[in-house]
Amino acid sequence: MDQLTSTDLVAAAADLLRRPLVLDRTLTGGQHARTLLATDTDGGGQVVVRSFPHGDDAVDRERGVLPRLGPLGDLVPRLLAHGTAGGHPVIVTTAVPGTAAGPGIDLVTAGEQLGVALAAIHELDPTGLPDEDRRPVLRAGRLASAAHEAWAEADLDRVLTHGDFWSGNTLWVGDRLSGVVDWSGAMSAPRGVDVAWCRQDLVLLGSPEAADRFTTAYERAAGRRVLDVPAWDVIAAARADTYVETWAPNYAGVGRPDVDGGVLRRRLDAWVASLIGSRVQR
C-alpha cells in the first residue's frame, strides 16, 4: 500500500473518529488489507483500523453487512467510522477480544465451535447483500468436470454467508471462539459456500476429523441436515486447487508457518483424492 505509513493511517482514523488514537501494533493474517490495532486515549478502548488498495470496494461491502450482525453480539466487530487516507479506503471498527488460533488449539474442539457460530451467522437476513452462487468456472483445472457435476447436486437457497469463513478470520481466547472478523466478502449465497470452505480449511490444518465434527455441530445448531456437503466440498476444492500454495503467507500470518505451500498442496491433493473416490463409489 504505497507510501501510507502506520502513523498516517492511525492519524487518519483519529480524524474520522474525532478522538485521539495511539498505535498499539500491526495485526498480521490476510494479504488483502493492512490492519492496525490502536487505543483510544480518551478511554474508548481499542479499535481496529484497516486500509485497502485504491479503488477496492471492501469498505463499502463491510459497511453494508456490519450493521445487520447485531444478533451475533460480541462475536463480531461494530462499525465506528469509515473514509479514506491517501486515497485508500479505511474502516474503523471495535476490536474483538482474542488472537489467532495458533498451533496449540485442539482442532476438533475448534471445529465444533466454528460450526455453532456459522449456524448463527446463516440465520441472519441476506436481503440486499451482493448475490453470488460460486458456480464453478470453466478454468477449474483438473476438477472442472467433477465440480460442474457437483453443482447439479448443490442446494442454491440463499443465506447470509461470511464468504471467507476460515480459521484466519476467527479470534480465540484460549480454546474459546471469541470473534469472527473480516466481513468484506459477506454475501447472499448458498450455505454450502461457507460450510465447505471451513471444512477445507480444517483439512488443510491437518484434521479431517475436525471437519466432520464441524459439520455435525453446524447441523445440530442449525436444526437441519446439509445433504449437499459432499458436492460443495468438491466445488470448494476446485476453487482452491489452482492456487492453494499461495495461501502459505496467510497461514504464517495467523501463527501457522508450518502450513507452508508444500503442506497445503499435499493435504489438498489427499483431500481431493478422497472426495473423488467417494463420488466414484456412489
Q: Outline of this structure?
A:
It is built from 9 helices and 9 strands.
Name of the CATH class of the largest domain: Alpha Beta
The structural class is: alpha+beta
- Total domain modules: 2
Q: Numbering strands along the chain, what is their spatial order in the largest sheet?
A: 1-2-3-5-4
Q: Which parts are unreliable, with pLDDT below 50 for 5 consecutive residues or more?
A: none
Explain this structure.
By secondary structure, the protein is α+β, with helices and mostly antiparallel strands. The protein folds into 2 domains: 89 residues, Phosphorylase Kinase, domain 1 (2-Layer Sandwich); 175 residues, Aminoglycoside phosphotransferase (APH), C-terminal lobe (Aminoglycoside 3'-phosphotransferase, Chain: A, domain 2). The strands form 3 sheets. The chain has a 5-stranded antiparallel β-sheet with strand order 1-2-3-5-4, with helices on both faces. Strands 6-9 form a two-stranded antiparallel ribbon. It has a two-stranded antiparallel sheet with strand order 7-8. Strand 2 and strand 3 form a beta hairpin. The mean pLDDT is 93.
